[in-house]
Automatic annotation (TrEMBL):
Cofactor: Mg(2+); Mn(2+)
Positions annotated to bind NADPH: G11, S12, I13, G36, K37, N118, E120, G199
Name of the coding gene: dxr
Occurrences of domain 1-deoxy-D-xylulose 5-phosphate reductoisomerase N-terminal (ranges): 4-126
Species this chain originates from: Staphylococcus rostri
Family that this chain belongs to: Belongs to the DXR family.
Residue ranges annotated for the DXP reductoisomerase C-terminal domain, each copy included: 255-370
Binding site for 1-deoxy-D-xylulose 5-phosphate: K119, S145, E146, S170, H193, S206, N211, K212, E215
Protein name per its UniProtKB record: 1-deoxy-D-xylulose 5-phosphate reductoisomerase
Amino acid sequence: MKNIAILGASGSIGQQAIDVIERHPEHFNLVGLSVGKRVDEAIDIVSRLNPDIVSVQYEADMARFAEFDVEVVCGAEGLKAVATASHNDLVLNALVGSVGLPPTIAAIEQGIDIALANKETLVVAGELVMAHAKKHGVNILPVDSEHAAIFQCLNGEDHRQIKKITITASGGSFRDLSRDQLESVTVEDALNHPNWSMGQKITIDSATMMNKGFEVIEAKWLFDLDIEQIETILHKESIIHSMVEFVDTSVMAQLGTPDMRMPIQYAFTYPNRIEHDAPSLNLAEVAQLNFKAMDLDRYRCLKYAYDALKIGGTMPVVLNAVNEVAVAKFLNREIGFLDIERLIEREMKAHQVIEHPTLEQILAVDKQYKSKEYEV
Ligand code: NAD
Ligand code: MG
């Protein structure tokens, strides 16, 4: 029986993780959870799964759990309390944004393994988080489908024999539009992802291709690769989740239908596997798999992510913070779609990089760029 805590239990990944747990009560026990504003959802989960601890974003919501035998906490400290609860074997971090960094660090310091969906944690502090995990003997198990694919391809392999990895990208909602057409797209268009149903922020990040940029950075730190070893390719069916080429040119790929419950469950059971009752991949039905070279001029956010990774230091923190603010403004209909990349480019150009930042410096830069007033 594995005791699992879920940060971000009301989100897209969080809900699918709850589904995995409820389908396998003989394997998994939910010990703690956090939600943001969706308290009704948390009440529902608490009444069904009887965890020890629950965290909500706002103090005012704490009283709503009065009828349950559960410890109630809130805010940033609440996230850390859930992540480090004493019975945890594993924490699934399914928060969105760099808010996921401090509870990840807290769990690592308690020696608790992390199933990581929250890629922003590795974007802003990959070097520091991985070093910290190594020091405390903690596994960081990828949940992102591409990284879960690479992780599986590397099972039992010697990492020094990797030639390169190829991360696949569906292309997002606007894959068939030109840059001129992107000028006038709407929030509704952007939220209409062809292959995956996900939270709003990652759906916009997929449309701008920033999501793939974040995944390049995430892969660098998870698998200790050089930037030149990380390639991306457009693959509109999202059937090949990613691949690894070894020094002898042999290529290993991981395939499956687009269903996040598989990588979530694998992170929960690793190194074992248990049944997953989703339909099997039917390649005869899929019939065709398409690939196209990635175009960094068309997808500028991906280029900025490669740039930020090359520059290093606090540049990826700026990339992420400005992106979080810009995506929120786009979702709020305050700025246009292409303003997201314009803001990021401008702020990256002006940023004075701090090399090898400490956690405190990372959090300070993150806060500075999130609280800044931006003119477009
Ligand atoms: P989501 O928006 O659906 O859910 C995010 C969760 O975080 C919610 O529970 C929300 O309440 C919580 N949250 C947000 N801000 C918070 C705050 N300040 N304090 C406390 N809680 C807060 O997002 P999602 O699509 O589930 O994505 C979660 C993470 O997983 C992201 O980093 C995303 O990039 C990554 N991811 C998602 C998918 C997917 O299929 N959805 C796939 C791969 C990776
Ligand atoms: Mg992904």
